[in-house]
Amino acid sequence: MEEWVLNTIIRGLALGTPLLWAALGEVYAERSGVVNLGVEGMMILGAFSAFALAQTTGNPLLGLLLAAGAGAAGALLHAFVTITLRANQYVSGLALTMLGLGLSALLGRRWEGLPLLETLPEVSAFTYLSLLLAVALWFVLYHTRWGMVVRSAGEAPAAVDTLGVNVALVRYLAVVFGGAMAGVGGGFLSVAYRPSWTEGMTNGLGWIAIAIAIFASWDPLRAVAGAFLFGALFHLSFRLQTWVAPEPLQMMPFAFTILVLAATARRGGRARGAPEALGVPYVRGER
Amino acid sequence: MRWMRTVALVALILLFAVAGPGLAQAKLKVGFIYVGPIGDYGWTHAHDQARRIAERTLPIETLYVESVPEAQVEPFIEKLIQQGARVVFTTSFGFMDGTLAMAKRYPNIIFGHASGFKRNRNMFTYMADFYQIYYLNGLMAGALTKSGKVGYVAAFPIPEVKRHLGAFALGIRAVNPGATVHVRWLFSWFDPAKAKEATEALIAEGADVFAFTEDSPTVIQVAAKKGLPSFSHYSPMQRFAPQHVISGQLVHWEAIYIDFLRKVLAGKYTADNLQNVDYWWLLAEKAVELGGEFGVPINPVWAPKLQAVKVSTQEFGTVSVHDLVMRRLAQMSKKPVAFDPFTGPIRDRKGVLRVPAGKTMTVLELTTMEWAAPGIVGPWPKEP
Question: At what angle do helices A145-155 and A167-188 cross, to 10 degrees?
């Protein structure tokens, strides 16, 4: 029993960490009013660049740093298209996902199958740092002026605009920050979770991160719960195959995580509901 | 000046004489539909390598589409045909019904479907099957497991995977009658995260040797990190963990593609006579190979350990597992095949007699196999 609990917690932390980083990033982007469906693409760009640099330099942390840059670069593209050009956010995000998958596959061919000599442990100080980061991001979002500005940009951009806040700048920063977070999440996959590069290796985890951000009602702390719960249940869905039919077990981590997050959502109040201006490009003077 | 013009003219004529036939005769266009990305380092990667070799060897031109969802194969086939493909290969079991439907809609196009069992006058089936190699891997796994538990990370509960698991289990039990194979199903051909967690689950349950069906080296890497050995799958994966990969299965799809396309080019196979054409190619046809790296049947790191384990057999007396593997390999590598893993009497794990004494399973029985061999532990969807 003890082995079960311990092992499940460790597995939950291991898979939950990359999901958490990506989900936290999406929380910030969406809080500022910009949907970014390019998480999968930014994660895979992060996974590839982290692996490539870690492989070359032998330093996985350096790899993660580059992953943040790669994710941010992808996000910057999305920000430019959706904030400056005011294009459809959903379409741009999907395009970013495809771009990331395609670009990483193209660049990644020669890295395929190379070993990584120096890897990051799956559960390490980095995991606890991630938890601290989530708490810090929650604090910033709800208890600082910066957080209020980000939330306001997503709720009532016209109102903060009249107060002299540069809505476009706030959104740019939030989206690019979200991209950097997704990049690190992806990088964690290729230098820690499964130290290797394989084309398409994120295989849908980016979408799970988006789902976690949404079902966590855009709350960083609830995203922590969602990410680690999903990680643990995902592992259990294989552990339990001895006793439970594998077909329904496949759905279990998804269904259960959504159920828990939905059931614990606060009724009314700030934690519920999407940001008012989510997905709407802001144009000054329009209502 | 005139002589220069003459030389130029002669050169031009010569050029046309050489290049002319190639230009005049449009190359046969061959399309490939893949279920995964070509960089998956597994099933799709192997098909794509074969496509390249075939294109280099034969006067053909190839097209391909990767990562095609199994339920949506028809529009992709349609697209390849519009691009001029006269032969279309669909390379996943799940493409079977979609390919058959398209074969009926396009009676003049030649179709090839890998790993299935439905054919048409313009649709043949082909498979480079590993069951013999899985048996050999099983012999080695049985010799090397200390806990008596071998882990298997499996893609889908379909006959192909069940057959391979069955042969693997029979091999394990042939040298280690008390050992078991523990199965975890992924319901995916490519999913590194699932493969990772399934392996972690098996490790937690005490498995200490691993084999798998999933198109990434994840299982090998996860096992190696814990110092546990495994068998490579599909592509040469020994390089991912040179100290921990014992052996594995390798494929040469090009053997089938080249043989078939040669016969198409020669006019022997047309869109009218494929109803009974089924390439069921094994070791003897050189469509598959034992090993985790081409030309290396058993990793030299593991050879001494396998030589140290002795078993007594009826056929060869007391031999090391290493020698048993090499002898069985030799028996299955030339025609007529002198040994088949599925030779009766074989009872399934429930005790039902599946292969009577003295009989071997037919290709049809192998391709529709649903029962679980003894020693397999874990869920078995559609178990008869």
Answer: 100
Going B180 to B185 to B191 to B196, the CA torsion angle's sign is negative
Chain A residue with CA closest to B235: the answer is: A113
Residue contact A238–B378, C-beta within 8 A: no
- State the average pLDDT over residues A6-21: 96
Nearest CA of chain A to the CA of B153: how many Å? 10
- CA of A87, closest CA in chain B: separation in Å? 28
Distance CA B231, CA B134 (A): 10
pLDDT digits (tens, 9 = 90+) for B251-310: 999 999 999 999 999 999 999 999 999 999 999 999 999 999 999 999 999 999 999 999
Tens digits of residue pLDDT in B312-368:
998 999 999 999 999 999 999 998 999 999 998 999 999 999 999 999 999 989 989
In this structure, are residues B35 and B95 in contact, taking their beta carbons and an 8 Å threshold?
yes
List the single residue in A15, A235, A246 with the smallest CB-CB distance to B185. A246
Give the CATH number of domain A2-263; options: 1.10.287, 1.10.3470, 1.20.1070, 2.60.120. 1.10.3470
Do residues B71 and B94 make contact, with C-beta atoms less than 8 angstroms apart?
A: yes
Find the residue in A nearest to B195 (Cα).
A238
Residue A182: DSSP 8-state? H
The pTM (predicted TM-score) of the whole model is: 0.86
A105 SS3 class: helix
Asked whether the predicted pLDDT for residue B17 surpasses 60, the reply is no
Of the candidates B157, B193, B200, the beta carbon closest to that of A203 is on B193
In the numeric block, which tokens belong to residue A40?
């999968």
Domain extents for chain A? 2-263
Name the residue of chain B whose CA is nearest to A201's CA. Answer: B192
Of A7, A201, A247, the CB nearest to B381: A247
Nearest to B104 by CA among B122, B86, B126: B122
What ipTM was estimated for this complex? 0.88
Put simply, the answer to whether A234 touches B193 (Cβ < 8 Å) is yes
